[in-house]
Amino acid sequence: MRITFCCTHTKAAPWLEILRAALPGAVIEDWVSGAPVADYAVVWSPPQQFVDEQTAAPGHSLKAMFNTGAGVDALLQLRIPSNVKLVRLNDAGMSVQMAEYVCHAVIRHFREFDGYQADVAQGKWSYRKPRGRADFPVGVMGLGVLGSRVARALTHFDFPVLGWSRTPRQIDGVKTFSGAAQWDDFLVASKVLVCLLPLTPDTRNILNFANLAKLKEDGYVINVARGGHLVDDDLIALVNNGHLAGATLDVFRTEPLPGDHPFWRHPKITVTPHTSARTLRDETLAQIVGKIQALERGEAIEGVVDHARGY
Questions:
Q1: pLDDT band at 9 (very low <50, low <70, confident <90, very high)
Q2: Architecture of domain 2-92+279-296
Q3: Which residues are part of the catalytic machinery?
Q4: Is residue 53 within 8 Å of 80, Cβ to Cβ?
Q5: Distance between CA atoms of 244 and 196, rounded to whole angstroms?
């Protein structure tokens, strides 16, 4: 068995060391152009050249490409033969990180900690009237592994939690909506909107003026999915006209976020550098190794991406 590693901007050595220890009978190498075709590939944002070289020969041996992150939108922009399985991570330690991040962002906004911090910086001892949680329903867009964990975590703080997904889902303590027929009802009922959708042609630009304007007055936006979901100028317009109170953004159309982008300087927008849920190497490789072993035994695995659906 041959495994190739092709992860852009990643130091290969520690990943290869863990893979070789877990699969001692396999040939495991960092990819270079012209390398032999592998049986499996561990990838993050590989170039088209990698895919072409690994799949060019009729009857090539590449069975699956394992993505080292949860989102596969970058992979789906490549020309990949349909007989090569694309496999995403199910969790690998990401969901608890995402739940931490979103709960922190919701609570920071709800408790007005930004305002207190600004007052303290000026030496001001201030008071703000407590807000009611019942007035802050949090809507979670996307109820997959990450979204479901986030929604459940938010219920522990007694916020009303809503969830929307393409197909019906049931989560204890969460009022769920699904499909186009319930989309507007979900938005109108939400004051804080959290985006955890996969980026597909159907969801690109979904955080636009028309949709965000349906949120309750003084709404708040948290985007931890992909920058392509958000229309930047529409968000700024709604914050500036007072309909939205602000936003916490972890993902952007261009990353790193350009230094002249207005998000950096907007007083009501909090920016973080795509750090809401980082790949944890040990957990990620343990999951990938387990799936490779299962495939070698002829067993089905979770996380296989539907090329047409986009996730």
A1: confident
A2: 3-Layer(aba) Sandwich (3.40)
A3: 226, 274
A4: no
A5: 19
